[in-house]
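Case 179 in the screening queue. Each case pairs one protein sequence with one candidate compound; here the compound is inosinic acid. For every case the pipeline is the same: read the inputs, emit a complex structure as tokens, and attach any notable structural observations.

Predict complex for case 179.
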Amino acid sequence: MAAITVHDKAFSIYLPEATLQKRIRELADAVNTDYAGQKVYFLAILNGSFMFAADFFKYLTIESEICFIKLVSYKGLKSTGDVTTAIGLEEDLHDKNVVILEDIIDTGKTLHFFLPQLQHQQPRSLKIVALLHKAEMTKFDVSIDYTGFVIPNKFVVGYGLDYDGLGRNYRDIYQLAAD
Ligand code: IMP
Ligand code: MG
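Case 179 output:
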């Protein structure tokens, strides 16, 4: 489909399925190469990354485990900003090769506040795969090790990404149409 409507807004096609799949395979191949002979524990961040994580995971050939976690931010607990904790992380990450799977990094705030919690568990290594990166919007320090696409600051939906809960079900990624 060239265009969709989600709630009250019009979106036009931006990254079609074939483009996404080709790039996701390249990302997985890079991870396969970099971790050859090692085991990796993937942490997929819900909700947005569920489709990306499922496709990416199918291209892996290394020994791989996966866990889906949800991040919850609490405001006002600390003067320094939000405190983010994970729901669903049961495994201890000590001495594991951990790779985070994120659908999109925008300001970088979510991961910036979450990463120290993971580092605290002393994983052997910790890397980030992000399908999309709104680079010009990123204000918080987050080093992304594998980036699918650097995109401009326009709202996107589809392939797991939502606008107010809707739009996750499309195979392609759509961009907010100019109004
Ligand atoms: P950050 O903490 O600012 O990096 O925000 C990351 C989160 O914001 C993502 O995991 C998404 O849930 C959401 N987000 C940011 N930009 C978009 C977008 O264009 N479409 C849908 N969700 C977005
Ligand atoms: Mg997300």
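Case 179 observations:
- The first helix runs from residue 17 to 34.
- The longest strand covers residues 63-78.
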